[in-house]
Specification:
Organism (chains A, B): Edaphobacillus lindanitolerans
Helix content of chain A: 40-55%
Pfam family, one (chains A, B): IclR_C
Oligomer: homodimer
CATH class of the largest domain in chain A: Alpha Beta
Protein name (chains A, B): Transcriptional regulator, IclR family
Keywords (chains A, B): DNA-binding, Transcription, Transcription regulation
Distance between the termini of chain A: 25 Å
GO molecular function, one term (chains A, B): DNA binding
DNA sequence: CATATTGGTTCTTATATCGAACCACCGGTT
DNA sequence: AACCGGTGGTTCGATATAAGAACCAATATG
């Protein structure tokens, strides 16, 4: 998390507050008042007021024993709203379940949000070893099948804005060469599907197809991912075909009901 | 949504902002600037700044076509944090799945949050007709099995604070008589399980057992719910037994790993 | 083409936030 | 017990900051 504020036309108090909220992450889900005030280099009185206000609304709550603050249950209220807005559960998830049945690997749906891909829905497969990811995860667009396929189908003029100067390497196999990446993307555009091996996480193979809105702009992707040894090269074409089929079904749904502007 | 602020030691700007955010509900997920400013009786300039600040952080986003605002994907980031904090996915959900297999109805986990019960996890059954509920739903504690069972096991001194003056009726069968409710709760405490029929939603039967934290305070409940005709009186004892069994397993887990302070 | 919307911006005033200094409490040291 | 360093929490005056009337620009409607 720990995003940057926009800086333009924003409320300082609210900016501060949201910066505070963003510190409650998977890595550091709880904070003491003083502890967080040091971390953020923020006057502890100011921080205290912010925490209390959030607490009053249920966004945060204080552990009565340790006095530490953590995210409150109020947050959960919004997830239903977001998801229903994306119309995910009623139609897309069942299709994802079918896909998981067919391929035996975890499937997930990614949406483009600015210069990041966000995992918005996951259907896990029923095996002890499987690809693991959390809802809400944000990753740059240049690595991993789910994100690369989005990048591949973006308008040329939009790309410069979302690609950073230097492409961060997540594994030894992440494509960090601009030229190489562009060649990759061209191939993805030709075949209509993106297959990656260990680019974002070691030993993970991903197969992804793009999803478009009514104006033919990429808005996200449908992906399956699993351990590389279960997805050898000779089987990927067959798997890719299955992902593309389900992708087409979801696409038809989007076209008809116009979600994901 | 649309909760009240606490009023004590809070930041007005942030309070305003959170009040704004709370207007983005399942019923009204999108708002135009002027439209919302009227609804909230708030100067549109002020509102505009709030919306823009939220937008800058990804909590809201503006539909570029309609110019309306809606919740952004940033929200999803937090859900993983909350859930992992509750340690739900890794252990509790599998147990809930087992329960759903056994009884063939939807199961859900409710946590007490102040004077409300919050649905934090749902495992739906695999039937066309089933009980439906959204994650994050907040309901008063006096109606429905999932909430009544929490109320039943709360400390006596804590109850006055959470029970409103008049008990809202959700259906014709909601218990709104204080005396009757107290008798119900006593029975629940004796049997250790709460069975309700159509108290919160018409024709819905719910069976719930309480969950306690390390200090033996009720923190939530495990519930199954389905259409009344599939859960006739003669079968409820058997179903209740199954819910209690799974409840015990989850309870053991909580006792060992101490989630849900 | 006038009117009434909409979203968005500017600039002044007054108000709401900041933050130093302040408790009260707790646990360990001396 | 007195002291220290560490919590979380509170108070109140100075001033930075957000409120809001008046203002665009654009679109839609008659």
């Amino acid at each position: 998390m720990a995003d940057q504020p926009t800086g333009v036309s924003s409320l300082k108090t609210l900016d501060n507050a949201l910066a505070v909220l963003s510190e409650f992450t998977l890595e550091t889900p709880t904070w003491g008042l003083r502890e967080l005030s040091k971390k953020m280099d923020m006057n502890h009185t100011v921080l205290h007021r912010i925490l209390r206000t959030f607490e009053g609304w249920g966004y945060l709550r204080q552990n009565p024993l340790t006095k530490e603050y953590e995210l409150g249950l109020k947050i959960l209220e919004f997830t239903s709203v977001v998801k229903q807005r994306m119309k995910l559960s009623e139609f897309v998830v069942p299709v994802m379940h079918e896909l998981v049945e067919e391929v035996g690997e975890t499937a997930f749906l990614t949406l483009k949000d600015g210069d990041k891909g966000v995992t918005v829905e996951i259907v896990e497969c029923d095996r002890p070893i499987k690809f693991n990811v959390s809802i809400g995860t944000r990753t740059p667009l240049h690595a991993g099948a789910s994100c690369k396929v989005i990048l591949a189908f973006m308008d040329e003029e939009e790309k410069p804005g979302v690609l950073p100067e230097s492409l961060q390497a997540f594994t030894a196999r992440t494509v960090t060469e601009r030229e190489a990446l562009i060649r990759d993307l061209e191939e993805v555009r030709e075949t209509g599907v993106c297959v990656t091996k260990g680019e974002f996480s070691d030993a993970v193979c991903g197969i992804a197809v793009p999803l478009f809105n009514a104006r033919r702009k990429v808005v996200g992707s449908l992906t399956i991912a699993g351990p590389g040894y279960r997805m050898p090269d000779e089987e990927t074409p067959e798997l890719a075909e299955k992902v593309m089929n389900k992708g087409r079904i979801i696409q038809q749904y989007i076209d008809r009901f116009g979600s994901f502007y």
